[in-house]
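User: Fold this one for me? It's Prohibitin.
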Amino acid sequence: MLRLSNPFIRNVFALKTFSRNVSSLHIFSPAKKAAIPNRVFIFVPQQSAYVVERMGRFHRVLEPGLAVLAPLLDKIAYVHSLKERTIIIPSQSVITLDNIALSINGFLHTQVFDAYKASYEVENAEWAIEQHLCSSMRHEISQHPLNHVLKHRLSLNEVLNAKLNALTKKWGITCLRTEILDIKLPDVIEKTLHERETASRKKDTQMIAAEGRMMAMAKEAEGRKHAQLLSLEAQKTERLNKAAADAEALRYQMNALAEGIASIAKTLNIHRHGADAIGLQLAKEYISALSEMGKNAQTFVIPQNIMDVSSVVKEALNIGQSRPKSATVKTEKPNMDSAKQTNIDGVKV
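Assistant: Here's what I get for Prohibitin.
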């Protein structure tokens, strides 16, 4: 069996035991390790810092790795972890500017950056940081109403973190983040806020629905207006086309009428018995018109000389004989504005 008679082997085993002991120490625990026997060789873990005192006075800070101490003179007084640490802030009672009592808790992340200051500038850093944060939280929240506290939690976190850093820098500790975790409202206030929020959401929903209906009605009215404009435009185009067609048809009809009158006039001037033929044609049309009007049971047309139809025919035949033979017929197109009427025995032709 191996005996631990060699001083070097005894130092190695003692070092392992010491390392297990210091790994469970509190981050800000300032208690001196007087019970740990002095050793020559010390292994400092990663992200740790050992404060060494020589004859009761600060000597140096051991960095991670192997360190050699002077027997009986050097002693490890403080052990600090350089890792980021979370400190839980218990629930605190605070009062807002509008006199509403709240219950707030939170947490903060800290880290030691100077082991010397963390050992000799403050007795219990964790307790001091916790108390200072609670005091700052009460003071800061008392400056704002409840709505500001609920809506601007991020800005409050930044203000609290800045205040903590202004204090802990001289302790060799930095506050990385400060967070307000929970804000507990009184039951009455919480119920009132819930009802207000419900009413606000209902109002927003109704406003959105009303805006949707209004937009739909506006779109529908715009569609009807557009359809009406298109209909009026179509009617206008149809009327213009119809008027143009009627004008064109009337123009062709008047041209045909003018050509017929010119042909008749030419016939009267050329043929010897042209006037007699015209009189005969007028008599036929007269008799035909009388027969057509007689077909209507509600209309009665009585000629001026109903018993002597032959006289009407004779007058029609004598139309051409009454004009001088040497007269010439002037062919002109009829005027549309002044239409002439010819009366034969009271009948309009």
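One thing worth pointing out: The beta strands are 41-44, 48-54, 57-62, 65-68, 74-81, 85-95, 101-112, 173-184, 343-344, 347-348.
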